[in-house]
Amino acid sequence: MELEKNKKKRSVIRQLTTKLLTKIEVGYSKTDIAMDEKLENLRDFSVQLAEKLSELKHLDSQIETDTSVDELEDEIIQSQEYQEKAILWRGRLQRFINQHTGNHEAVATQNETSNNRTVPETKVMKMPRLQMSTFYGDSSKWLDFWNQFECTIHNNGNLSKTEKFTYLKSLLSGNALAAISGFVLSDRNYDSSIEILKDRFGRQDIVISSHMNKLLSIEPVRNISNVKALRKLFDECEIQIRSLESLNVTSGSYGNLLCPIILQKIPEELNFEFNRKEQSKFDITELIEFLRKEINCREAANLMNYSKTFQRQDTKKGGNQWNNSEFKPKIASASTLSTMNYKCIFCNKNHGKFKCEELDAEKKREFLKRNGRCFLCFGQRHLGIFCSNKHLSCKKCRGKPHHESICLKPKMPIPSEIPDKEESADISQNSSATTGSDVILQTVYAVGEGKRKNCILRCLLDGGSQVSFIREDISKKLGLPSKGYSNLNIHTFAEKNGKHWRQRKVELTLRNINDPDKFITVDVIEAPVITTAEIKPPDEKIKSQLKGLGISLMTHPSSDQESIPVLIGADCLWKIAKEEIKRINENAVALDTIFGWCIQGRFSLSELNSEESICSNLLVEEKLSRTLESFWNIESLGVNSPDERLENEEALRLFENSIQQNNDRYEVRLPWINENVILHDNYANAERRFFNLLKQFHLNLNFYKEYKQVINDQIKDGIIEKVDPNATRGERIYYIPHRAVLRKNHSSTKLRVVYDASSKDKNQKSLNDCLLQGPNLVPELLKVLLKFRLHRIVFTADIQKAFLQISVSCEDRDAMRFLWIHDDSNLSNPKVQIYRMCRVMFGAKSSPFLLSACIKHHLRKFESEYPKTVELLNNYMYVDDFICGTNTEMEAIEVYHNANTIMKKASMTLTKWNSNSPVLRKEYETDKHKDSTPLCDSSSKVLGLEWDTCKDVFSFSAQDIIDFIQENAQTKRFVLKAVSRIFDPLGFLAPYVIQAKVLFQDLWLTGIDWDKPIPLELQSKWIKWHEFNSRRSYRKSKYHVGISALMLKHLTNGNCIASMIVHRVLMVLLCISSFPI
User: Fold this and answer.
1) 526 near 477, Cβ under 8 Å?
2) What is the rounded CA–CA span in Å between residue 757 and residue 845?
3) 927 has which bridge partners?
């Protein structure tokens, strides 16, 4: 009851405070009353405001005491936000009163005179209002911002720290504001915020690096005639060099490195001129002085040339400069347009030469050629390629040297000119009611700046509207200055008659979020609503697709709302657009703007919704790249040396220091790059992909049941565990998206859950980014397979769920969290439960190293007890597959029993034993009944190769490729996929596979796109290849060399043959023995 009473009372006080703030704002801006009267009114307002603030703080304190813990955070934030404006106005009033009271009293004192002495009167000049710049997080601008802020606010003793904190937040934006956005307004938090900002943006090393990066990224200038661009380059260099000098970084410490870089960015003629001087060295001071003189000379020369040309034209036309249409100034105001007379060079009528519609583009070109005029500015005595008015280049033709009005391409609409004051116009606006789920409209994010505050706005680019609009509530929130009223006739779709509007026009500044130097100031019309349609931004799949084309779309984290507060019409659409336009497909394009890339058009989502494709459509290109890599890498087996990494020794050291064995199970730490690495939690990505997984479950209940069974089994086996919200959290928390890998031909587990430890947000690190990969401890595939063929008796096995048999330390388990359905909920109404991995998982880049290192560490304990078996396990263990051989069955049985004993002491079970020996298979069958160890049948696989254990041969079935080729999609992409399905590491099928690889090389040389049909001249080769494939299946004897001890002699013979297309090396081993092989 007391809580409701206090809230009601606070509501009344807030209403009174709002009215008082309105009175203060009006009184503060009044200029038609005497200063004494204004100061008196403001003093009264200040006292009243202080009382209201005191009452509000007292009521807030009482309400917070009675508020529940769940609602307390929202209550504090709401209270602080409401008090911010009042505190801001209180400080503003106090400064105004102190400033003008001091000046007024000084004047009054100096005007008091006595009879014996005259006091000279001091005139007080009213200084212009100081406008502090906003700091966006650019370290190179930190010192300027901090010096301003420290002088005006930080060292102001009349302000409390809470008031200073309010000012500080109002002057920050972008990354700088995000750094302290979590702090509530308080005295203690103000000091903490200053420390954070200084540490992040004000550290001297960061500031120096920022200035150096700006020097390195200066825009190059290639045209020596572009004096304006040269001046910009010079000024930027000098600004950064002087800034570095202010930080005690002299040019001598970096000049030798910077000089060659700047020389590369200036025109070749200037570079040559500088290097021609004998006395010149790589001295940055000398280079800057050289550029200063050159640019000053060229600016003076250009000024003189312009003056002479102007006088010459003036004399030619009879001394009246305004009669010469070549040099008439551009008229900005539409109201004065009717008083000026243009003389068109084409038709001699009163309009501008660029706006003539009497002649078409071809006739204009003929006229210009006939009169020897420039195609750019239409001036005389020069050609377009030498014209200095490069800004007139045609944008439709990407900067070709002719004006857009004589371009032979279809004419683009001309943006309408809107008068500054009250006007009347017919506006045609393209209103969208709804959009298809796969049609994207052009939107960008920008910082909207006003007098009251700044905020991030999502802007819709609409070329169908002749003017730009802003929502009324956003305009008032920003405090945009008024520029009069506009009378509009709005014509919308399917309406014959337009609606008449009279709306206020305001001035809006839009600025790039990441680069504050890029901005535009536009006149926009206030409107109650821009659109009621839901215009969704591009989803993550489309963004990932576009990254492959070098297009990065921006989504600001605080702009998750999908409403549109600003519409940018044709009046300023092409002011923000850059020249680059990329076609994504036949239905969609991307446009580069000063705010970043935006896209428009239809995107096909049918391919993106595939159940087995979690990533975006253009990630197919990344998959394609991996396919190409594996396609050719198989040729280099046994040739390429293992990848040596600098961090291998560190990974091994961390492993040896952290591994321990508890109850026969090994426990390891994750090998972090360093102990101080910062890991983003990635919760948003994990949640989004988990909800996508739930959608797949709804479509396929059997898939859900299999997935759930795997999760339940892992909970039962202690592989995963629920996260206790009350337990102590680890140093790093990371949520991992997960998905299923279906293995239809797998003999045991058909579905495996794998984790995407590479998932991350933009500018953040993933779990894999923070882990060491470790050295490759796995033997080479080719060596393992060749050794497998040496022995008469061979056998295979693998470790059951090998990765999941190694525990991960509790310190690192919070970095392997994932989301799953709560036990108490079902699929129709799922609740999210947080789990975490307790074992080494599939998907982390360090997992293969941890498994191999753990096995080798374990085997070292048994070197003295089982030396022969340990040697075989070390040399013949490929990841989790044991592929071995001996010369006698007795040796093989001994290895079988010893290997099982050794591995069980590490909680690892060797399963799927198989052999080409009937004796061994019988031994395995006997043990299978004892301990239910799974046993393979006569047909099994050896590292991807089909092996018939009864006949002891490798077999290669073409059925898989035949089924795949039935799709009959004869494209370059399809050929690559088909040929890549052949796995032949030992080269048994080389004569057959090489034909397909040569065909693919021929396809590559044609330059056709991935999804274009194969050219007719190559289709016959492709058909011949797969028809030959469909008629054959292959078998190859495994062979074995025999008993090496009985070898008397062996000879080797080799030969090589090569052509322009392929080469072949053949080695023959001849063995002479006293014993039949």
Assistant:
1) no
2) 8
3) none
Residues 773 and 681 in one domain: yes
Look-up of token digits 């004399």:
315
Q: Report the predicted TM-score, pTM, of the whole model to 2 decimal places.
A: 0.45
Q: Is the pLDDT of residue 111 over 50?
A: no
Give yes or no for residue 391 having a pLDDT over 70. no
Higher per-residue confidence, 274 vs 841: 841
Residue 1074: Cβ within 10 Å count: 7
Judge contact between 209 and 184, C-beta under 8 A: no
Q: Do 581 and 721 share a structural domain?
A: no
Query: Distance between CA atoms of 1077 and 1069, rounded to whole angstroms?
Result: 14
Torsional class of 943: left (φ above 0), alpha (ψ -120 to 50), beta (otherwise) = left
Domain that holds residue 195: 155-202
Instruction: Name the token pair of 125.
Output: 């000049």
726-766: pLDDT as tens digits: 777 777 899 999 998 886 665 556 788 999 999 988 778 89
> Does residue 126 fall inside a structural domain?
no
Per-residue CA distances from 348 to 341, 344, 353, 838 (Å): 11, 5, 9, 85
595, 445 contact by CB (below 8 A): yes
Per residue in 996-1008, pLDDT tens?
788 878 887 777 8
**Tally of domains within the chain:** 7
Which residue is listed with tokens 């010192």? Answer: 143
Q: Picking from 206-210, 610-614, 920-924, which range would have the lowest pLDDT averaged per residue?
A: 610-614
Q: Which of 239, 250, 231, 247 is nearest to 215 (CA)?
A: 239
- Among 63-77, 899-913, 1023-1037, whose mean pLDDT is lowest? 1023-1037
In the 8-state DSSP scheme, what is residue 151?
Answer: I
Residues 945, 875, 647: CA angle, nearest 5 degrees: 100
Residues 191 and 229 in one domain: no
Among 646, 680, 673, 667, which residue's Cα sits nearest to residue 557? 680
HSE-CB for 814 with a 13 A CA cutoff: 14
Task: Let me know whether 213 and 265 are in one domain.
Answer: yes
Structural element, H or E, at residue 310: helix 284-316
Say yes or no: 216 and 95 in one domain. Answer: no
Share of the chain above pLDDT 90, in %: 13
With 0-12 / 13-18 / 19 or more C-beta atoms within 10 angstroms meaning exposed / middle / buried, residue 985 is middle
* 248 falls within a domain: yes
Q: Do 344 and 364 form a contact (C-beta atoms < 8 A)? A: no
Q: At what angle do helices 889-904 and 918-931 cross, to 10 degrees?
A: 30
> How many Cα atoms are found within 13 Å in the side-chain-facing hemisphere of 274?
25
Place of tokens 């001849």: 1070
- Residue 715 to residue 863: CA distance in whole angstroms: 35
**Cβ atoms of residues 807 and 666 within 8 Å:** yes
Spatial separation of the C-alpha atoms in residues 809 and 839, rounded to whole Å = 9
Pick from 544, 570, 601: which residue ends a domain?
Answer: 601
Return the pLDDT at 857.
93
Q: List the one residue out of 483, 488, 497 whose CA is nearest residue 465.
A: 488
- Whole-number average pLDDT of the chain: 75
Instruction: Please give the Cα distance from 588 to 600 (Å, whole number).
Output: 6
Same-domain pairing of 708 and 801: yes
| Residues 139-163 pLDDT 10s | 778 878 888 888 888 888 778 888 8
Domain assignment present for residue 466? The answer is yes
Instruction: Tell me the C-alpha to C-alpha distance, in Å, between residue 1074 and each of 792, 1045, 1047, 1051, 1068.
Output: 17, 10, 7, 15, 20
In this predicted structure, what is the pLDDT of residue 292? Answer: 84
- The answer for residues whose C-beta is within 8 angstroms of residue 93's C-beta and 6 or more apart is 24, 28, 42, 45, 46, 49
Are the C-beta atoms of 372 and 381 separated by less than 8 Å? yes
pLDDT digits (tens, 9 = 90+) for 39-77: 878 888 888 888 888 888 888 877 877 777 667 667 777
pLDDT higher than 80, residue 124: no
Q: What is the C-alpha separation between 648 and 662, in angstroms, rounded?
A: 26
142 domain-assigned: no
